Amino acid sequence: MAHRHDIIVEQGATLLLEVDCQDENGSPCDLTGCSAAAQVRVRYADPDPAAVFTADVSPLSGRVTLTLSAEQTRALTKPYGVWDLRLNWPDAMVQRLVEGKVTVKPEVTR
To answer: What's the CA gap between 73 and 103, in Å, rounded?
Structure first.
């Protein structure tokens, strides 16, 4: 079951999220061979994402670093949305690691 983590996006600013994957003993997961994908959508059923994170997997530390550029967050014009992070394991298993709501704080300085 995915962990719940709501995020606040500051429109026009770079967003950096670090997600640590741990096993049942609290040790870092070995993410060797894994890839990750994360997206923001306004609504779950929307056919296209509002933003796609750049995902960097650090296999031995069990950390996934997600980034949205300032240009990507500037393009988020709706005040709310949803997001999730999916891990794709080498054995073809797909795991939703984190999910949550997105709140966009509008940009003032442009």
So the answer is: 11
pTM over 0.90: yes
- CA quadruple 99, 57, 33, 26: dihedral sign: negative
Which residue type occupies 74? R
Residue 46 vs residues 2, 32, 37, 40, 51: alpha-carbon distances, Å: 20, 32, 17, 10, 12
Q: What CA–CA distance (Å, rounded) separates 104 from 14? A: 13
pLDDT of 110 > 90? The answer is no
Q: Which amino acid is at 25?
A: N
Q: What is the mean pLDDT of residues 57-84?
A: 97
Segment 98-105 shows an average pLDDT of 98
The Cα–Cα gap between 74 and 70 comes to 6
Chain-wide mean pLDDT for the chain?
96
Q: Which of 1, 7, 21, 20 is nearest to 50 (CA)?
A: 7
